[in-house]
Specification:
With 227 residues, the protein is α/β, with parallel strands linked by helices. Helix content is 40%, strand content 18%. It has a single domain (3-223), classed as Rossmann fold. The two termini are 27 Å apart.
């Protein structure tokens, strides 16, 4: 069976950037696994909210949301892997590279989707570095596709994509219009990220501009194996 692995630095990244692609791959008979690298417990701590819910409570909330969201995509619970690293601390566990290496050797994916080294978020950059280091320790031959959740220059995102279309042969855009509604309902399962949980919040963790940018008819990737 054709195996695909999607690495999500936080629960919800897999839907935001790869949701439609995951649905399409499943419909074509691929077997998709999702590896959640952090538990996302500090999403509200970053907004200086530490209670109602607490970080540990949010960790459990986000795991359940990830499982429901993946179920809406069509990914079975047996293909979900939670590494439970605290977000912002991905580079603090020296054994993480070995853990991911073992998972990759177990799954033997033909395709891997991972965050870009050019993402503006440190967890996403560190996730890229760790996955690439793990892959180098294996003898696997797999296609690598990187995605960006938070571009460094978000307001110029359209222009950057246009330049990629014209000049970068590695650039791929998947039309996911047939799966957009299913992707949307999958994301709705991540209520802690798209709704107000605490009265102190002025806006959800994921802002409306981010949702507008990522919930459209295409998902874009850079194929890292192409020159």
């Amino acid at each position: 069976m054709n195996e695909i692995v999607v690495f999500a630095p936080h629960p919800d990244d897999e839907i935001l950037c790869c949701g439609g692609t995951i649905i399409e791959k499943l419909k074509k008979g691929f077997d998709v696994s999702i590896i959640y690298m952090t538990d996302g417990r500090n999403a509200l701590s970053n907004l200086e909210i530490y209670t109602n819910p607490s970080p540990l409570e949010l960790k459990e909330i986000r795991r359940k949301e990830a499982m429901r969201g993946a179920n809406f995509l069509g990914v079975t619970s047996s293909n979900l892997y939670f590494l439970d690293v605290e977000d912002t601390k991905l580079n603090s566990d020296p054994n993480l590279v070995n853990i991911i290496r073992d998972l990759l050797e177990k799954i033997k994916p033909q395709e891997i989707y991972l965050p870009s080294i050019k993402d503006a978020t440190s967890d996403h950059k560190n996730a890229n570095l760790i996955v690439m280091s793990s892959l180098k320790m294996t003898k696997l031959e797999t296609k690598l596709y990187s995605y960006i959740t938070f571009p460094k220059y978000a307001r110029l995102d359209y222009l950057v994509k246009l330049l990629h279309r014209i000049f970068d042969k590695r650039y791929i855009e998947n039309n996911i219009s047939d799966h957009l509604s299913q992707k949307y309902f999958s994301l709705l399962q991540h209520k802690s990220q798209i709704m107000i949980l605490n009265p102190k919040q002025r806006q959800p963790v994921i802002s409306i501009p981010i949702l507008q940018r990522l919930l459209n008819n295409t998902e874009s990737f850079i194929c890292l194996n192409e020159l």
